[in-house]
């Protein structure tokens, strides 16, 4: 749809206004005026996209897209010319040196402003014609007629009655209730009416709508208990109708019923709900014939796709709203085009058509900003697991994340976008962070991928399809009208990066390129050479393209050659070089004044150029144990993430690193920091990071062996949730960690005393990992009621541990326990049997483990047990596994032959194993 073009232009102008603070008077105001007009056009096209059918009126709106493209060209040319002027980088402000440029820009913008105003006037004339009439409304009530419910509201008994319209999501409950509520005969029958949705202030909203506050203006701020009493008194003398829309009856009614008097005057309460425990008026689903009739009211189905269409409509399971939305979506996407149906063809063989139909309907109702974000996910390779960290940074770099009015950071806003797309079934969680309940990686469901790709292309997300015109005269500054590529994903079309064009005009489609993402994982030097050649040819050509490029993501591309071209990509926001094995970064990286994310993790880059301190807008810096020495006056105030930095006794912590105080994530390796003053400076810096959420500290000597880690109390870091510490601590204090910690990993800590009494008091701790040398004692006790929120426990290489006791009531929410290389542990604690939520148990290389008892009723939720290289464990618990009725998988690796034979003999052919049970011998 045209709205994608309009939004991109509007976003570009908005970003431009934000940056341009030194233009001559008048120009900035003119940009703001055009922005306002574009926003109006954008909202209008959103309405068209969401509400109008494919008809003659809609076809007449195509000139809006053409106008948007003209404004886009003006703005892009404005940026390109501006960034070539001398003094562009002076104080990071634009500076016009040519006195003729402002007047020309004024004229161009004035012309476009007039055009936009003209479009707006035409919108005012035509908008009501398109969507204002009765014909645009959809009847999705289903078979239950509204007259039946109206009759119950208006006639019948005079006592107070509660009536509920019950049905699944999308059945049309709310639409039916709204029709009834707004009808004249209902409004005239009741003295006061209120329509409320679920919120924390339902009573206040009812009081407002029944005009209670007009009679009692001094009661607006009274307590809820007083409001209940006074509202009851007010309603007692009136015949009232209260509609509770989309509320769970049993949850709400018991709390609110005391506010509604029964004056025997015919008052009514009407619920729309999915709660089966309510007085019901059930909406039944549509039958097959009704569903097809409703769908074909919206869509003209080509005869060759009729059978497919019926299959898809049946997947709407008779829900009127789902059927209507699906039909509207197909109509808007020009269902007479074969590509739409061909993209849907894959659904006919998908086992979960209902899931896909709901995803399609969710897309139909998707806000425009989320459509852009979703298209980004669509363009990644099939089955690609996208780290949420990476996706969020890409969205922000592209300007797709809106500024929060609630003070949230762009990253926090983007996290809500991911959650919204997941809730709408458009993307799936691949891996989740249990400690934070956040998404770690996500992916696009395979079903419908080709359909989404076709839709992204049709929506001009990747390129703008324009009719070719003759080449402009030499006096014209406008580029020829041709397809303009906005985003280049080489997995979708590899011809872009791997061809050898030399004619400058062949690079014209890349003039407005915003993003380039490469997934070229070929071995050898060719991928890196292709990247260099592509950029070099474009930058050195007459047009000097790529100066609008915001995103360059080359993750996994082997050694891309960027030294000659990187410093010329001056509009870059995101530079992803992870896993490229690159060995150097050029000093010209300091030219990338707007860079927000630099990722060189898993590369061979050892020394960073000092010019990196010029990147004043840098928010995320991922290194690979690199030294990063602050320079005089160098401060990265916007920095949120600093990972993979190596500091030593020569590093400037005080007066250097400690000037970055807004960090959310910090990962440092401290090498040979033996001086107390240096350790003190580091500890004080960490304590100043009040917004810190993730802390990873590793302390080593010159040989890379763990050394002392001077760590003071972190109690003052109130939002710190993830701590990873490698180094000698020897003792933990009561106030060592804040209660906000959800994940704690300790390694080489050399704790001599049992620290469990301290750690089990961390009330929000979900993951505890005690790795090699973290505990050097022989005895460990998990006391009753300790570790109340713990989900995962990992004990690795605790070589001195001999006795581990788990008391009844400990770890009441544990799901997974993994024990590896605890060589002196002879018995598993009896308390494991009382862990009713335990699902996975892994035992690996417990060389002294001899006994394991499983009694009847033990571990009632266990699904998977894995045992490997426990050579002294002669057999599984005698008759024990018979009690584990939920066990689905038993994996045995490296166990003695007699052990495997015993298992096979005693359990391999018995019928008490569940159907899903699987034994593996490796």
Automatic annotation (TrEMBL):
The Disease resistance N-terminal domain, residue ranges: 6-91
Record keyword Nucleotide-binding present: yes
Stated name of the protein: Uncharacterized protein
Gene3D superfamilies reported for this sequence: 1.20.5.4130, Helical domain of apoptotic protease-activating factors, P-loop containing nucleotide triphosphate hydrolases, Ribonuclease Inhibitor, Winged helix-like DNA-binding domain superfamily/Winged helix DNA-binding domain
Disease resistance R13L4/SHOC-2-like LRR domain ranges (all copies): 546-843
Taxonomic placement: Eukaryota, Viridiplantae, Streptophyta, Embryophyta, Tracheophyta
Residue span(s) of domain NB-ARC: 146-299
Listed GO biological process terms: defense response to other organism
GO molecular function per UniProt: ADP binding
Pfam families attached to this UniProt entry: LRR_14 (PF23598), NB-ARC (PF00931), Rx_N (PF18052), WHD_DRP (PF23559)
Residue ranges constituting the Disease resistance protein winged helix domain according to the UniProt record: 380-443
Organism of this sequence: Tetracentron sinense (Spur-leaf)
InterPro entries cross-referenced by the UniProt entry: Apaf_helical, Disease_R_plants, Leu-rich_rpt_typical-subtyp, LRR_dom_sf, LRR_R13L4/SHOC2-like, NB-ARC, P-loop_NTPase, Rx_N
Keywords: Leucine-rich repeat, Nucleotide-binding, Plant defense, Repeat
């Amino acid at each position: 749809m045209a709205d994608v073009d309009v939004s991109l232009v509007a976003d570009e102008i908005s970003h431009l206004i934000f940056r341009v603070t030194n233009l001559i008077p008048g120009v900035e105001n003119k940009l703001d005026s055009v922005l306002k007009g574009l926003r109006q056009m954008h909202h209008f096209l959103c309405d068209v996209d969401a509400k109008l059918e494919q008809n003659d009126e809609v076809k007449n709106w195509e000139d809006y897209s053409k106008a948007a493209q003209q404004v886009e060209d003006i703005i892009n040319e404005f940026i390109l010319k501006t960034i070539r002027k001398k003094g562009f980088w002076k104080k990071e402000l634009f500076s016009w040196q040519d006195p003729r440029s402002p007047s020309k820009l004024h004229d161009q913008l004035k012309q476009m402003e007039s055009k936009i105003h003209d479009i707006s006037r035409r919108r005012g004339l035509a908008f009501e014609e398109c969507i204002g009439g009765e014909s645009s409304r959809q009847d999705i009530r289903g078979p239950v007629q509204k007259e039946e419910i109206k009759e119950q509201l208006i006639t019948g008994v005079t006592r107070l009655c509660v009536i509920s319209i019950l049905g699944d999501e999308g059945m049309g409950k709310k639409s039916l209730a709204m029709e009834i509520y707004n009808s004249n005969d209902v409004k005239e029958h009741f003295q006061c009416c209120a329509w409320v949705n679920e919120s924390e202030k339902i009573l206040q909203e009812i009081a407002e709508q029944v005009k209670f506050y007009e009679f009692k203006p001094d009661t607006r701020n009274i307590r809820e208990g007083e409001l209940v009493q006074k509202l009851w008194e007010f309603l007692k003398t009136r015949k009232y109708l209260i509609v509770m829309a989309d509320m769970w009856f049993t949850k709400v009614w018991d709390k609110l019923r005391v506010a509604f008097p029964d004056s025997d005057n015919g008052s009514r309460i009407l619920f729309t709900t999915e709660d089966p425990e309510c007085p019901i008026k059930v909406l039944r689903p549509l039958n097959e014939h009704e569903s097809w009739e409703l769908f074909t009211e919206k869509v003209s189905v080509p005869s060759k796709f009729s059978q497919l269409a019926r299959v898809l409509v049946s997947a709407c399971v008779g829900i009127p709203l789902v059927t209507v939305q699906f039909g509207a979506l197909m109509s808007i996407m020009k269902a007479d085009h074969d590509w739409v149906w061909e993209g849907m063809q894959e659904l006919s063989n998908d086992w979960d058509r209902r899931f896909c139909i709901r995803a399609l309907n969710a897309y139909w109702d998707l806000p425009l900003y989320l459509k852009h974000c979703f298209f980004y996910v669509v363009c990644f390779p099939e089955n690609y697991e996208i780290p949420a960290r990476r996706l969020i940074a890409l969205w922000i770099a592209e300007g797709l994340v809106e500024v929060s009015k609630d003070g949230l950071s762009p990253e926090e806003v983007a996290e809500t976008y991911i959650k919204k797309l997941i809730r709408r079934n458009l993307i799936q969680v691949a891996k989740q962070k249990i400690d934070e309940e956040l998404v770690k990686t996500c992916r696009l469901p395979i079903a419908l991928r080709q359909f989404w790709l076709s839709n992204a292309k049709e929506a001009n997300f990747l390129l703008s399809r324009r009719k070719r015109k003759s080449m402009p005269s030499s006096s014209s500054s406008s580029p020829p009208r041709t397809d303009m590529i906005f985003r280049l994903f080489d997995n979708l079309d590899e011809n872009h990066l791997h061809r050898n064009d030399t004619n400058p005009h062949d690079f014209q489609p890349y003039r407005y390129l915003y993003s380039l993402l490469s997934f070229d994982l070929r071995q050898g030097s060719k991928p890196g050479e292709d990247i260099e050649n592509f950029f070099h040819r474009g930058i050195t050509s007459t047009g000097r393209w790529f100066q609008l490029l915001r995103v360059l993501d080359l993750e996994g591309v082997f050694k891309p050659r960027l030294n000659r071209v990187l410093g010329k990509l001056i509009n870059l926001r995101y530079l992803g070089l992870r896993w490229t094995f690159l060995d150097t970064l050029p000093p010209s990286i300091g030219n990338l004044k707007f860079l927000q994310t630099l990722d060189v993790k898993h590369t061979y880059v050892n020394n960073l150029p000092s010019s990196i301190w010029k990147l004043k807008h840098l928010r995320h810096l991922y290194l690979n144990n690199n030294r990063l020495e602050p320079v005089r006056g160098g401060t990265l105030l916007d920095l949120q993430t600093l990972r993979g930095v190596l500091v030593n006794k020569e590093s400037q912590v005080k007066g250097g690193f400690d000037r970055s105080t807004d960090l959310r994530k910090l990962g440092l390796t401290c090498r040979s920091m033996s001086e107390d003053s240096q350790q003190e400076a580091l500890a004080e810096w960490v304590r100043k990071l009040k917004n810190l959420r993730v802390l990873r500290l590793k302390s080593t000597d010159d040989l890379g062996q763990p050394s002392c880690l001077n760590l003071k109390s972190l109690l003052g870091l109130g939002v710190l949730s993830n701590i990873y510490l490698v180094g000698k601590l020897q003792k933990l204090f009561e106030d060592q960690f804040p209660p906000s910690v959800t994940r704690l990993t300790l390694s080489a800590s050399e704790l001599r005393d049992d620290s469990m009494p301290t750690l089990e008091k961390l009330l929000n701790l979900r993951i505890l990992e005690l790795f090699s040398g973290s505990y050097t004692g022989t005895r460990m006790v998990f006391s009753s009621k300790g570790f109340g929120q713990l989900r995962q426990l990992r004990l690795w290489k605790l070589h001195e541990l001999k006795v581990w006791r788990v008391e009844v009531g400990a770890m009441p929410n544990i799901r997974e326990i993994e024990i590896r290389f605890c060589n002196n542990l002879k018995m598993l604690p009896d308390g494991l049997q009382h862990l009713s939520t335990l699902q996975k148990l892994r035992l690996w290389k417990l060389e002294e483990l001899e006994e394991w008892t499983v009694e009847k009723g033990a571990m009632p939720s266990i699904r998977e047990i894995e045992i490997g290289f426990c050579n002294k464990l002669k057999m599984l618990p005698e008759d024990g596994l018979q009690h584990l009725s939920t066990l689905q998988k038993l994996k045995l690796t490296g166990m003695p032959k007699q052990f495997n034979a015993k298992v096979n003999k005693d359990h391999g052919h018995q019928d008490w194993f569940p159907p899903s049970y699987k034994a593996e011998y490796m």
